[in-house]
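Support case: adenosine monophosphate complex. Customer-provided input:
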Amino acid sequence: MLISQLLQRKGGNVATVLPGTSIADAVAALAAHRVGALVVSADGATLNGILSERDIVRGLAAHGLSTMDLTAGDLMTADVVTCSKEATTEQLMAEMTNRRFRHVPVTEDGNLIGIVSIGDVVNARVRELEIEAEQLNNYITGR
Ligand code: AMP
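Agent response - structure generated as follows:
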């Protein structure tokens, strides 16, 4: 399945924070949006980085509670792997598995148009495989 189709279903909303947002506020944003990662963006369109709950856990291990006073820019991963809407769910599943992360922002002409999580791609892939299995079953049983 194409990422464009997946985004049509889930929408293009992306939870973003500014690079200067405190980790305390980023934690509140993660909870409010019920997501595991925030795109860090100074203008809401281009990417400065990605901040996942895992970055915050690592920050806590390294700096203790003072982590809350650091900023999203301090803990984010700046070198973000993105994809285009022409990518497929199979490609993203492989990328996420090989590189051990669970989020891939989708960009077009350098601007953010959505984000895909491992949950999104697994759900889409399971649905695809269920449909395929049903079609094969119908073919075999002549229905
Ligand atoms: P995650 O599994 O997505 O919670 O992230 C695990 C680690 O990978 C964290 O350090 C994230 O900042 C980083 N990360 C998450 N998504 C990406 C991405 N698309 N490109 C580069 N790094 C990422």
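The pocket of adenosine monophosphate is lined by residues 36-37, 50, 52, 54-55, 77, 80-81, 101-104 (CB under 6 Å).

Case will auto-close in a few days if no follow-up is received.
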